[in-house]
Please model this.
Amino acid sequence: MDELVPAKYFSVVTSEERNYTEFQITEVCGAKRVGYFGPAQFYIALKLIAAAQSGFPVRIESIKNELPLPRFMALKNDSEVRYGTPAELHGAKFQVPHATLEKNSYKRTDEGDKQSSAVSWRGLGEEQKVEIVDETDRESLSAEREQPESSAHYSDDPWRITEEQRDYYINQFRSLQPDLNSFISGSVAKNFFTKSKLPIPELSHIWELSDVDCDGALTLPEFCAAFHLVVARKNGYQLPEKLPETLLPEYLQAALKVSTALKTIPKEFQHLTMKTAAQESNALKARPRSRSYSSTSIEDAMKKGEEPPTPPPRPQKSHSRASSLDLNKIFQQNTQAVRSGWLPPPPPALPPRPSVSQTEQVSEVELHPQMNRPPSQAEENSSAKKEVVLTQPPSKPARRKLRTETQGLETPELSPTINVTSSLPAVKPHLPVQKQSSKQKRAIQTAIRKNKEANAVLARLNSELQQQLKEVHKERIALETQLEQLRPVTVL
Amino acid sequence: MATAAPRAHRQSLEWPVLVSVLCSPQNYPLYIRSVPTENELKFHYTVHTSLDVVDEKISAMGKALVDQRELYLGLLYPTEDYKVYGYVTNSKVKFVMVVDSSNTALRDNEIRSMFRKLHNSYTDIMCNPFYNPGDRIHSRAFDNTVNSMMMQVC
Model:
């Protein structure tokens, strides 16, 4: 590496110094005379900077003092690299005790675009190799993972998958399953991940974290998440309790971001929006899991497991489904009720959560034959919410990460709505809080109106189903009492 | 005993469900979760004896009329302090729940829904290829589900 540091780099480094001092330093260290900063000049110059920063006069004698380390504000990574290498001592010609550079800035800093880490100089005269990138983690990777993943860990977040990592995972997926849109089955994945020699309980936990739809198979994003977790664990990271947001598959990431963004909305709108966000995430989670336990035996259960997620409409059975609802009856009745436009009395403000999730599941299964409605509803809800999220960024600087990601998400998907809301992002962040909240309120109210319509439909369903449930319960209790009477009494 | 009663009452408000147990078809426990109090051993014993009742109910059914209604076994055994509810899956895995009697807010259909949640969570565990049926359950997600279910009145 070229040892001659051109003067302009030196001025970049010392840009916080007053110009005159800088001029003095360049003069004293001999660069002016020689015309360039060789290693000796550089070391002297830096020592003089330290002297100047601690208030000593800029003289050759100052370097003999015991000085604290000069503090620099490093502006760019690249410049640090360049300053790093010239500091290697190969038989220093001058007695410059404080001459070595150690790189602190390449450690994993927290997320932040500007790496304003100070480059501090260690005051030891021994030769030290500059560690530019911590390549130490390479050794800990197993032979199967020979990819430059260590550099990827030093992006903002260890749970974020970089492009090269993702390509590697996709290739591995292809080796297990040539079709990228289909699943890897559980046993195949188990054999594959067991090769990583992690203990079985940890692999089990990784599976639980990454198989978000709990179907016993891994889609491509789930596989990437699982692989990433395995790699992280092998590199010494502790496994998280919950799957980090960046590892979620995209459809859940969007729902999660929306629901977390909604938490910033003032509380009076929160319960409505949180409910709809919860409903949406419940819908997304419940979609692949339409499990019914009304099978009559293990063999029937296994047969049904091989069918597509929505069970086909079953023949009418009179009493085979007591506590779970007979979906056929409800489906027919519901379409009739919807057609007749019968509106039940409005439900209580906060229905208990199990019935919410239950109605979500049932409504998902019901509406599945009319495939359009759930995705369009979810899209409606999400687009309404993303409008809201767009208005958030000016007022919520703390959500920087969220904003950049939602903006990235929204631009490809929501160009029509962005036209509508294009005026809103023009709101300056310096507006008083009341104006912001009123604009927020307007946007939120439109979102609320849409969500209310969706809510009304679901509430109708809910109340109808509750009524059905009550009737079925009554029947069941009557039958059970009859059965008890007929059975011989068991004395304990 | 005077101090025990208000404490138990408080417990029933915080923890309506006192104990949840999953048992394998061979009647050894796969998962036990109980409220951390004294007398845990007493609850374990109660659950163990109630397995007899479960077996009895299963055998009493006999014919192939096993369906959702029969999965939920209902109240197995009431004492003055608590009630025991049972549920059996298609693969003969048994769930037993002990509920405080003083908690009158828990109705039958709520117990049913709790069992359904347990069953869903158990199915999720079975989907995990690293889980061998018959192992003890160590899943953190399952723990969280059971905790949240036991702590709140559905």
Remarks:
- Residues 1-9 of chain B have pLDDT under 50 and may be disordered.
- The first strand of chain B starts at residue 17 and ends at 23.
- Residues 39 and 142 of chain B are 24 Å apart (CA to CA).
- The helical segments of chain B are 4-14, 40-61, 68-71, 108-127, 140-151.
